Amino acid sequence: MNLIERVKSILLQPKETWVVIDSETTDVATLYTQYAMILAAIPAVCGFIGLSLIGFSAFGVSVRMPLVSGLVNMVVSYVLSLVGVFVLGLIINALAPTFGGQKSAIQALKVAVYASTAAMVGGVFSLLPALSMLGLLAALYSIYLLYTGLPVLMRSAPEKSIAYTVVVIIAAIVMGVIIGAVSSVFMPRGADMLGGADAPAITMNTPGGQVSINTAGLEAAGKKMEEAARQMEQAQKSQDPAAMAAAAGAAATAAAGALGGGQAIAAQSLKAALPEALSGLPRTAFEVQDGAALGLPTSQASAQYGSDDKQVRVEILDMGGLSQMAVMAMGLGQGEKEDQTSAEKTWQEGGRTLHQRYAKDGSHAEFKTVLKNGLVVSIEGDNMGIKELRGFISQVDLSGLEGLARKGKS
Questions:
Q1: Separation of CA 300 from chain center
Q2: d(CA 138, CA 121)
Q3: pLDDT tens per residue across span 80-134
Q4: Which among 139, 153, 144 has a CA at the least distance from the CA of 93?
Q5: Whole-model pTM?
Q6: What is the pLDDT of residue 63?
């Protein structure tokens, strides 16, 4: 199955494509590793880039989710979206006889996975929060895909397709509320929180060139998810709630394993790039975090510099295997805007993606760059202009950071 061709066909010719899908022989691992796990990364990663790296402005106020909070939200939403698709398949399968259809776990999962295409692809609009409404419209198109797929794959009565679709959507909404509640448990709180060679790969063209996403880790994660699916099916037959909960947890763990495309650069190596002082401003504090404790392939180092009238904060973040997705997403988000009080711009230069935002009254400025190896270096300061702030970032060894390489797999 060609991923790009399948996405195009299900979006543009759904009725014909559902007939093709109906006749395909597949399994849970293939549906996840070759399709769902890849597309589900679009809304998760683009949402992180839009909210934490770019942010949004309204009425002269800029809002940006702290980086670590955004990163945890990205991982949790990614994992739970994959679990949600699986549960949606269970719902579709369970309801099939009610609407004159035939139960089939794999056919139901096909419907859940491919009907979600529009919603997942529409997640690219999360890069710019102002365009997030377009993502909602894309999600609504997934309802139409569901409507056209149910009678073909589940053999439901055509005259009951609308009712079948409505009931599934209601159940999905309830599931979404539950997933949202679960997600909120994992979200950090507090405004002061810091922020294989032969393996197949997906190559995407971006304004900054081609970006290859290695899918080697997806195969192993897919096999684990397939085993979790068998456990969930057995638990469902036995009607054992504890066993079903354990199987769902195993599926979530397997999905999380798909994120490991390489170990994050050691946090201490990132810390070494933080200078003792910036243009006479002494380093007053620093913090180093290693995401391995949370099961995340990430690392981060940050430092605070300041005097009585100026404060500067520098942060270096590595997202491990997802770093190349950051390069791709930032490359897609180029543009600029300006009003009476502030200005911001995202562009590419020398193979790096740069983003700056500042208040015209000199009260605040921030600048960040995504290096060629995916490291994100951010600096923000109070009581200074953008030119002065960029002078500070020049004292951070960006070339040295760009030369750091990841090894192994997370």
A1: 18
A2: 8
A3: 888 888 888 888 988 888 888 999 999 999 999 999 999 898 888 877 766 767 7
A4: 153
A5: 0.50
A6: 63
Please say whether the dihedral angle defined by the alpha carbons of residues 132, 260, 319 and 346, taken in this order, is positive or negative. negative
Two tokens at 165? 């679709």
Spatial CA neighbour of 71 closest among 252, 296, 329: 296
118 forms beta bridges with: none
- How far is it, in rounded angstroms, from Cα 216 to Cα 201? 8
Rounded CA-CA distance 227/233 in Å is 10
- The residues that bridge with 338 in the sheet, in sequence order, are 343
> Which tokens go with 118?
């529009």
Can you list the residues of the chain whose pLDDT is less than 50? 59, 181-182, 184-219, 221-222, 252-261, 293-295, 332, 408-410
Nearest to 358 by CA among 57, 49, 52: 57
Q: Give 385: exposed, middle or buried? Use CB within 10 Å, 0-12, 13-18, 19+.
A: middle
Please say whether the dihedral angle defined by the alpha carbons of residues 63, 69, 71 and 72, taken in this order, is positive or negative: negative
Which tokens sit at 388?
């002065």
> Encoding tokens for residue 310?
């100026």
Residue 368 bridge partners (DSSP): 355, 378
Angle, CA of 222, 251 and 21, to the nearest 5°? 50
Backbone phi, psi, residue 290, to 5°: -120, 115
The angle, 0 to 180 degrees and rounded to 10, between the axes of the packed helices 67-95 and 216-238 is 50
At 289-339, the pLDDT tens digits run: 876 544 455 788 999 998 888 889 999 988 765 555 555 555 545 678 888
